[in-house]
Amino acid sequence: MLNAWRLIADGLPGTCQVCGAWPARPVCEPCTQRFGRAAARCPGCAARLPDTMSRCGACLAQGASTALSQCMAAVDYAYPWDGLVARFKFRGEPGWASPMADLMLRAPGARDALAACDLLVPIPLSGARLASRGYNQAWELIKALRRSRRLAGAAPDAQADTLLRIGHRPDQHELPREQRLQNLHGAFVVHPHNAARLAGARVLLVDDVSTTGATLQAGARALLQAGAQCVSGLVFAHTPDH
């Protein structure tokens, strides 16, 4: 019943939260086209690329050490998306998951990755952060992806607690780049009850924002160690210049 009401509510007109146009979706189509146009991105980390490059320097330096088969992002973490992510993530507005998921499905390669994967897995929060926030924004995005009208065919399976975050570590957004890359070493483990379903599975790992990619890489390594065949990443936004 809740999902039925949510589908109805998603179709009702409102005010664009960027330009104020009415009637409109939460972000109207002109604003989506202006600020969310698809861009060439590195397949390894989703960083925006100039036309002359097929892969960013950081991913070229990593070579075969990356745990992700590919990584996709819908938009840059910049105006107006940074403010909307803050509302979604820190101000108790999980309803932003639906319009963000629709934009994620427009990212080049996203639909194919969803069609090819066996399991959708969210980046987990710590227990304390989950209790404080009341929801995991990555899991909200997965639920929105699975019910999106834009997703053709059957939605892939999903499991909220496939990965667990262990230990207490500083938030990634509070650390400089070098420390971010080390902060999440060993931060994730696979839930023992869900390990069997990972054997040979093609996994799509989902989060809201990627900066250095350290969080996705750490999650992907844990999934591969548990037997996943391959792991791709899909995020709503990628922080520029990282």
What is the secondary structure topology, with strand pairs?
Layout: H1 2-10, H2 29-35, H3 57-62, E1 71-76, H4 81-90, H5 97-104, H6 110-116, E2 119-122, H7 127-133, H8 137-147, E3 157-158, E4 163-165, H9 177-183, E5 188-190, E6 202-210, H10 214-225, E7 230-238
**CATH classification, class level of the largest domain:** Alpha Beta
Task: Please state the structural category.
Answer: alpha/beta
- CATH-assigned fold name of the largest domain: Rossmann fold
Topology, number of strands? 7
Whole-number total of structural domains: 2
* Overall outline: globular
- How do the strands of the widest beta sheet line up side by side? 1-7-6-2-3
C-alpha-based Rg, rounded: 17 Å
How would you classify the quaternary structure?
single chain
Q: Mind explaining what this structure looks like?
A:
- The protein is built from ten helices and seven strands.
- By secondary structure, it is α/β, with parallel strands linked by helices.
- It folds into two domains: 1-35, no CATH class; 38-238, Rossmann fold (3-Layer(aba) Sandwich).
- Strands 1-7-6-2-3 form a five-stranded parallel sheet, with helices on both faces. It has a two-stranded antiparallel sheet with strand order 4-5.
- Helix 5 packs across helix 8 (137-147).
- The chain is globular, with a radius of gyration of 17 Å.
- The relative contact order is 0.16.
- The model has no long low-confidence stretch (mean pLDDT 87).
